[in-house]
């Protein structure tokens, strides 16, 4: 545990909630920032708020509704269906989203005296989002430091993990059941295991099944050794 302040970019989904548990374990003071950008479901903001309350961390909600003006698409608009054509970015892509979110988070972080910024972006499973790449995060970290003359450290605990390994991390943090039951990943707004049909649910379930298979195997191996 480091005696320092950290700010987590927090949506109430599996990845950012795993990051929140990770931050709570590693830093003495943790706050969260949630971006309201016309998500398909206000439920996402409510879900994030209830998780922040459960974990006793402050949540700041920033209005980013201008994103739907800049980039009208399936994530910011209710009248656009989600599609993901083979070999293309899904139409939930918002250009520059992490650039904007991390920049706003950094401004808030500096004001509260926090150096550590934590985001759940991931290059391994990434759907082609250029601002989820490690090289982008490292580049932005330098830019943020120069822009505010401040030593931010941007942490990406999930950067090199696949979905199964993210579940494993949540288990190691003692948060597996909580994250499985309380986070919202589903595009149809169903908390926990979700609708099971949308692309987000399918990705989440594939990782979960893969992890559970490994966990059950090692559990039965342990059981066998003890028996
Ligand atoms: Zn779903």
CATH-level-4 superfamily name: HUPs
Distinct bound molecules:
zinc ion
Q: Roughly how many Å is the radius of gyration?
A: 18 Å
For the termini, the CA-CA separation is 37 Å
Low-confidence stretches: none
Decide which structural class fits the backbone.
alpha/beta
What does the largest sheet look like?
Answer: 5 strands, parallel
Q: Which fold does the CATH topology refer to?
A: Rossmann fold
Number of strands: 5
Share in β-strands = 5-15%
Question: How many domains?
Answer: 1
What strand order characterises the main sheet? 3-2-1-4-5
Question: Helix segment count?
Answer: 8
- The CATH architecture classification is 3-Layer(aba) Sandwich
Description:
With 227 residues, the protein is α/β, with parallel strands linked by helices. Helices cover 47% and strands 13% of the residues. The protein has a single domain (2-226), classed as HUPs (Rossmann fold), CATH 3.40.50. Strands 3-2-1-4-5 form a five-stranded parallel sheet, with helices on both faces. Helix 2 links the parallel strand 2 and strand 3 (58-63). Helix 1 (14-26) packs parallel to helix 6 (163-172) and helix 6 crosses helix 8. The longest helix has 28 residues, at 199-226. The N and C termini lie far apart (37 Å). The site of zinc ion has 9 residues, from helix 8. Zinc ion (ZN) is lined by residues 186-188, 194-195, 197-198, 200-201.
């Amino acid at each position: 545990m480091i005696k320092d302040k950290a700010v987590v970019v927090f949506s109430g989904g599996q990845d950012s909630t795993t990051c929140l548990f990770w931050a709570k374990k590693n830093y003495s003071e943790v706050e969260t920032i949630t971006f309201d950008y016309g998500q398909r479901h206000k439920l996402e903001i409510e879900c994030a708020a209830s998780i922040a309350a459960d974990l006793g961390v402050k949540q700041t909600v920033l209005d980013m509704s201008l994103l739907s003006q800049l980039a009208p698409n399936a994530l910011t608009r209710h009248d656009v269906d989600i599609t993901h054509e083979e070999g293309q970015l899904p139409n939930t892509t918002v250009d520059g989203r992490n650039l904007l979110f991390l920049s706003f988070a950094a401004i808030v972080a500096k004001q509260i005296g926090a150096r550590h910024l934590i985001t759940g972006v991931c290059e391994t499973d990434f759907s082609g989002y250029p601002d989820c790449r490690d090289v982008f995060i490292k580049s932005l970290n330098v830019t943020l430091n120069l822009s505010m003359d401040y030593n931010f450290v941007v942490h990406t605990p999930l950067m090199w993990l696949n979905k199964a390994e993210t579940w494993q991390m949540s288990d190691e943090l003692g948060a597996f059941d909580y994250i499985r039951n309380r986070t919202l990943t589903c595009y149809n707004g169903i908390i926990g295991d979700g609708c099971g049909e949308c692309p987000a649910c399918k990705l989440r379930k594939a990782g979960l099944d893969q992890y559970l298979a490994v966990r059950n195997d090692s559990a039965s191996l342990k059981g066998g050794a003890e028996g």
